[in-house]
């Protein structure tokens, strides 16, 4: 536990010793702010128009701030995460391999699992800051409207789990190569596959379609943004994380017998 | 303290090390000597649990490096050849991080880091990032991280490589000061360094142990062959012939002539016989002028080359 803590602190700090953390966090907040502005401003224009033209309400369904602002915001945040989180995870083991520091790390009395979890937690720390910095948008909605907090909390919980899943896959990819770009590309493409895999669900047969749907990130975030925390979605993300942490552990361990 | 039995490591087709066995007693300082690619680093990486052996056994402080890797890693301090440190950390922050990982009690960490920095001469670099340090200072940080938990076994891969002469002297005296309680394995291809620091030398070449003994024994082993350098003024061919005729001479070599008209020769006697006194006798009989007669000692360098090349060395 102490080793884990030391590694976590070191990882977390090292993101700030290079520009990575600042760049990723800034871009994430700028992009999410931009999306939020467009969604929120669009919604308020629509609300004004609806005052004079009640038919609009019929056309768009209920003019509901949770439905029309919070839900699309969380959807876009997950898209931005898809692009930015591989940039955070790509260095974790690749850089250590490239610079040779892994030789010292693995000859310290630290288990492979502690090393992985330390890096995982360090990344999660940065990711938590990223998510927290989108919160002013939610507060703005709260000031001017009346969003449902259940949906917000469930939605952010969903995003948090999804980010953890992205990070676990990214760390696994970085154990495979000493090239950071390769790690980032592999992570991004795998995540993208999981992101869009449900697109072909409609074309496939019923059983395969359901499997494809179940594998997709989007399918599982959908219930979270409805304010529902379903155990099947929870277990999807948790299994995903555990699976890739396990693979990372195996990948590091294999170095000890493969040489 | 360290037991290595029939250790073999292959990289695909290539052999890293081949059937290496040796023991190191507690408190002993031993040196690995060998040309580049001989297998020194591979052996050290196996001992530090970074890499598995293909076959054979190795144990450190009674723990097997493969089965009990965590316990072994608690006992050792390791300085890899390339000194891979986290360049984006400040020196004391880095050392505190290592101290934490090596399980030093929280309360001792600060004082221990300060103590270590003073010991290796880093106190005035406390505000710097590791990446800003020169090679010599990085080496010191590397040593400090290896020593931070006061390990029983120290494994140092080329600890003085790439340093300037003054730094080399400093690091050497530091290492010498560490001996006694600790068991130290260090590798080097600088021979005087090894003979100066180590109680025992293991010469490795092409993955095999070629020789293993104290520096003195290694020297005396080959010292049975006596050689002298003679500087003589006289007709070259006659002198050569005359020297060869001395009883007990194994070979004579002409080494070149100086402007003063003297010629230099190396005379090697047969095993176990030193006939240097016969040369002045010959010179006075023949009325040649003998300017110089020096015993040509075999340096560790020669021994090393002799052992790794397996052929006659001419000095």
SSE layout:
The complex is a heterodimer of chains A (259) and B (315).
Chain A: H1 2-17, H2 20-52, H3 55-60, H4 65-89, H5 94-99, H6 101-105, H7 112-132, H8 135-144, H9 149-176, H10 180-196, H11 206-215, H12 217-225, H13 231-258
Helix pairs in contact in A: 1-7, 2-4, 2-7, 4-9, 4-10, 7-9, 7-13, 9-10, 9-12, 9-13, 12-13
Chain B: E1 2-11, E2 14-24, E3 29-33, H1 40-47, E4 55-60, E5 63-64, H2 69-75, E6 76-79, H3 91-101, H4 106-119, H5 135-147, E7 153-157, H6 165-178, E8 183-188, H7 191-197, E9 200-205, E10 208-213, H8 215-223, E11 227-233, H9 236-245, E12 249-257, E13 262-269, H10 278-286, E14 289-295, H11 300-309
Parallel strand pairs in B: 3-8, 3-9, 6-7, 7-8
Antiparallel strand pairs in B: 1-2, 1-4, 4-5, 9-10, 11-13, 11-14, 12-13
Task: Describe the protein in words.
The complex is a heterodimer of chains A (259) and B (315). Helices cover 83% and strands 0% of the residues of chain A. With 259 residues, chain A is mainly alpha-helical. Chain B has 2 domains: 2-215, P-loop containing nucleotide triphosphate hydrolases (Rossmann fold, 3-Layer(aba) Sandwich); 226-297, Alpha-Beta Plaits (2-Layer Sandwich). Chain B has 11 helices and 14 strands. Classes of the chains: A mainly alpha (259), B alpha/beta (315). At the A-B interface, helix 1, helix 6 and helix 13 of A face helix 2 and helix 3 of B.
- CATH architecture call of the largest domain in chain B: 3-Layer(aba) Sandwich
Helix content of chain A: over 70%
Using only C-alpha atoms, the radius of gyration of chain A works out to 21 Å
What's the gyration radius of chain B in Å?
25 Å
Number of continuous helical runs of chain A: 13
Q: What string, H for helix and E for strand, traces the elements of chain B in order?
A: EEEHEEHEHHHEHEHEEHEHEEHEH
Compute the number of strand runs of chain A: 0
Q: Largest sheet of chain B at a glance?
A: 6 strands, mixed
Instruction: Provide a count of the helices of chain B.
Output: 11
Number of domains of chain A: 1
CATH classification class of the largest domain in chain B: Alpha Beta
What's the pLDDT, averaged over the residues of chain A?
90
Low-confidence stretches of chain B: 311-315
Structural class based on helices, strands and sheet pairing of chain B: alpha/beta
User: Which topology of the largest domain in chain B does CATH recognise?
Assistant: Rossmann fold
